[in-house]
Design brief:
Shape: globular
Number of strands: 5
Organism: Microbacterium rhizomatis
Strand content: 15-25%
Largest sheet: 3 strands, antiparallel
Oligomer: single chain
Protein name: HNH endonuclease
Bound molecules: zinc ion
Structural class: alpha+beta
Helix content: 10-25%
C-alpha cells in the first residue's frame, strides 16, 4: 500500500456507505471488479492525495472515509476518470473534488447519487444537507 491509499477497512466503510454504487452516476458496481476497466470500480480521493497522506502525514484525513467516494472506472476511465480530467470543474461543484487546504472533506458537501447532498464523516457515516447555493438543480 503506497502513501495516501485507503486501507482495506476504510474501503469497506466507503463501499457500505455508498451501497456499492458509483457516487456520481449511481451505477451498481460488482464487488469483485475493483480497479478494472469498464465495469470495474475504484475509490476516488476528493482531496488529491499528493503528498502527506497516511496516519503520520500532515493531512491524515486524506485516507479517511470522508475523503473517498466509490466511483465506476479507474483513475482514467468511467466517472472516476472523468472526475480527474474533463469534468474537473463539475467535480468541484458537486464536491467530488476538493481544493487542498481550504476546509476538510468532512466540511464540504457532496452530491451523492444514492443519498443526495450530504456531509460525509470520517467513520463511514453521513448527514443530509441543503444543496449549496446555485446547485439546487443538480440534486
Ligand atoms: Zn459512475
Amino acid at each position: 500500500m503506497t502513501a495516501g491509499e485507503f486501507a482495506p477497512d476504510v474501503v469497506e466503510l466507503i463501499w457500505d456507505r455508498d451501497q456499492g454504487r458509483c457516487v456520481d452516476c449511481g451505477v451498481q458496481l460488482r464487488r469483485e471488479r475493483r480497479a478494472e476497466a469498464f465495469d470495474g470500480w475504484s475509490v476516488q480521493h476528493r482531496e488529491a492525495r499528493g503528498t502527506g497522506g497516511g496516519k503520520r502525514g500532515r493531512r491524515p484525513w486524506l485516507v479517511l472515509a470522508s475523503n473517498g467516494g466509490l466511483m465506476c472506472g479507474t483513475g482514467t476511465t468511467g466517472c472516476h476518470g472523468d472526475t480527474e480530467t474533463k469534468r474537473r470543474g463539475r467535480a468541484y461543484a458537486l464536491g467530488f473534488a476538493i481544493k487542498t487546504g481550504i476546509r476538510r472533506p468532512s466540511e464540504i458537501p457532496m452530491r451523492h447519487a444514492v443519498r443526495g447532498w450530504v456531509l460525509l464523516d470520517d467513520e463511514g457515516g453521513w448527514e443530509p444537507v441543503e444543496a449549496p447555493r446555485g446547485q439546487e438543480m443538480a440534486a
